[in-house]
Structures are given as C-alpha cells and as structure tokens.
Amino acid sequence: MDLQLDGKKALVTGSSKGIGEAIAHALAREKAIVVVHGRDRAQAERVAHAVIAQGGRAHAVAGDLTRDDEVQRLIEEAEEQAGAIDILVNNAGGSGGSRESWIDTQPASWATAYDRNVLAALRVTTRLLTKMQQARWGRVINISSLAAMMPPPSAPDYSACKAAMNAMTVSMAKAVAADGVTVNAISPGTIHSSTLDARFREAAAQGGMADEDAPWEEIERAVLPIFAQVPVGRVGRLEEIADAVAFLASPVAGYITGTNIRIDGGLLPSL
To answer: What is the mean pLDDT of residues 209-235?
Structure first.
C-alpha cells in the first residue's frame, strides 16, 4: 500500500534510539522527510545519517523538551532544515527508570515525570498545531503506553502521565478535527527494546532458566510468562509500533482521529 507520505515533513521527538528511531526509519521508508530529535545531538545525527544511508531524507535537531527556549529553538531549526512540519510524533518521555512504589513515591517525582512526558509533548504540539490548522492538513501522534490502561503497582507517576496523554489526545482531536488535522495515540505493550532485552536476560540467568547470552527466542520463551501473560506469546517488535505510526501519519488514515491503538499482543483483556 502506498501511504502517500512522499515529501511530508515529520518531526519525531526522542528518535535518537528505541521506538523513536524505528519510527524515523519507517517514515523515511515511506519517503517522508524526517527530522530526528534527541537530547544528544551526536546520537540524533547518527540516526539521521543512517536514514540517509538507506536512501531516505533526514535532518537532526537536539534539545531538552522540558525547557521552553530549547523547544522553540529546535522547532525553528527543524523548520529551517525541512520546511513546515506536517507530522508530529510525540515519542519523547518515558519512565526515567522510576521504580517507586506507593510507599515511597514523592510529589516531586510526579512533577518531573509529568514535565518529561505530558508537558514536553504540549510544548512541541502547541508550537506546531496552529500551523497545521492553517495548512488544513496535519498529523499528531502521541506515543502513550499500555500502563495508562493497565497500570502496574509500581511507577504510578508514569502510568498517570500516560493516562493524561490519552485524555489530551481525545481533547485535541475534537478541537482540530474540522481543520484537516488528526490526533491519535498509540499504546505499546511489552516491546523488545535494549532495556527489556537486558532485563529478560538478567532474569533468565538469575532464575537458571537460560544462559544470559542465549538466543533471544530462548530467553523470550523462558522469561515472558513471568513478566506478562501475552496471548500472542511473544513480545512486540519496534517495527510493529513504527508501522502503525506510519499508517496513522498518512493521508490513508484521514478518517481516524481521537483513537488509541493498543499494540500489546492482546495483553489488555478488554476493548
């Protein structure tokens, strides 16, 4: 299927690694012009160069999304390099490694997590949304998490932030639907990242289930049932998240807005 993204300009926040990096590659394969973002300019440039080496078009910008001045600067740089942004993927954020429980969680942790996830997305979006409305075309895709709907007992700040992003998605979608702009969320479940790979291998070694350097399939088969009861029987792949983003970013998905697409292998036991 031709997703009709040739020449569309996409800014993907937090795309110097992980899910964001996979999204940048997927959009570039569909011929979009991708602006790779990260806090570390060298890492963002590495991904941009990799996209270009594979025949895509890409630029790199850097900046801290918790600072208004840096957000303004990086958006200006992105527009100078690529042109007006058609597609915004709010991927930056994450848990920050939080393992707080309800016993030791602190208000300061919640404020930091909210700034890193929700307000970071807000700072970027509000600087681009009006321009999309004026152009009568645009896409905003917020990367949420299954934790927003199926929160674990730990890291409650992260689950709450992603739930806020889901509410933000629906509200924004209603506000701009008549202007040719769609706003959607994607909620990944258990996805094979470098962090998850390391955790699974450590658990396998500690539990005597497999050698830490065993093939991934052996590690996954042994450890996944301990972490999550995924009906599909495996963890998700970065490319599966990225392909869903590319679809939502395309003109083909023009009648889809205000949705939250779960990519979780059936883990959430409800619609």
So the answer is: 93
Predicted confidence (pLDDT) at residue 63 exceeds the cutoff of 90: yes
| CA-to-CA dists, residue 271 to 40, 82, 106, angstroms | 38, 39, 33
Residue 87 is encoded by which pair of tokens? Answer: 């597609």
pLDDT at 270: 82
List the domain boundaries for the chain: 9-191+237-263, 192-235
| Catalytic (active site) residue 158 | yes
Domain 9-191+237-263, CATH number (from 3.60.150.10, 3.40.50.720, 3.40.190.10, 3.40.50.300): 3.40.50.720
pTM of the model: 0.95
| Stretch 26-43: mean pLDDT | 98
What's the pLDDT tens digit per position in 173-199? 999 999 999 999 999 999 999 889 999
Question: CA dist 248 to 102, 227, 244, 252, Å?
Answer: 36, 29, 6, 8
**Which residue in the list 36, 65, 116, 158 is annotated as catalytic?**
158
